[in-house]
Amino acid sequence: MGHETTGRAPGSTSGSTDAWTGGVETGVRAWVGEPPPDPVAQGPDADPESVARKILLDQLTGRARTRKELGDKLAAKQVPEEIATRLLDRFEEVGLIDDGAFARLWVDQRQSADGKGLARRALAQELRRKGVDDETAREALDEIDPGAEEDSARALVRRKLRSLSRFDDTTATRRLVGMLARKGYSSGLAFSVVRDELAQAGRQCPGGD
């Protein structure tokens, strides 16, 4: 209210780009405060760059995403490559896109027993699919404590064992080891954990002592 609206170019809307034409701090304030009006709903006359910004902000609402994920989304919406690259660079500058932070958060959430209990190998595959480069992924994966990885494997086995009481030890072992393998655990660790957890439950791993 009270803003001058004269001098606008045909097809533009008040405030559609003003919040984003200043410096980096202005862009961040627009992100955390009052983002521009929805240019996507303004039809074909909407400024392509404003539309692209709206797409990016919508994608970042709720969870972080990698640069590749966002780039793919812009491409799917037929945003010109030049505009997409410029906006992705700016979003990285202000910290709204951070593949390193994304990788660390993804590993933390997916590796824990409360999450998916995934091992390094499976996590590396997921990060690669998300578009995180190998070096960035490796830095995040190197923060995993080997002891924590084994603890996650044990928690998974204990939880699964409850549903395997009606199966013989051979079948239970096969299913438990297969489960850990699908989550990226090495065969050596998988058999070791399964053998120990079966013993704790008063059962025996085939081939064990």
Summarize the model shown:
The protein is mostly helical and 209 residues long.
Task: Provide tags for this entry.
209 residues; mainly alpha; Arc Repressor Mutant, subunit A; 3 domains; 10 helices; 58% helix; elongated
Question: Can you put this structure into words, describing what you see?
Answer:
With 209 residues, this protein is an all-alpha fold. It has three domains: 76 residues, no CATH class; 47 residues, Orthogonal Bundle (Arc Repressor Mutant, subunit A), CATH 1.10.10; 65 residues. It has ten helices and no strands. Helix 6 packs antiparallel against helix 7, helix 8 packs across helix 9 and helix 9 packs across helix 10. The longest helix is centred in the C-terminal third of the chain and has 16 residues. The N terminus is likely disordered.
* Annotation field: number of helices: 10
Shape: elongated
Q: Helix coverage percent of residues?
A: 55-70%
Catalogue the unreliable spans: 1-26, 39-44
- The secondary structure category is mainly alpha
Could you say how many structural domains there are in total? 3
Q: How confident is the prediction overall: mean pLDDT?
A: 82
Terminal Cα span: 80 Å
Extended strand count: 0
Order of helices and strands: HHHHHHHHHH
Radius of gyration: 25 Å
Summarize the biggest pleated sheet: none
Topology record:
Elements: H1 24-32, H2 48-60, H3 67-76, H4 81-93, H5 99-111, H6 120-130, H7 134-141, H8 146-161, H9 169-182, H10 187-200
Helix pairs in contact: 3-4, 5-7, 6-7, 8-9, 8-10, 9-10
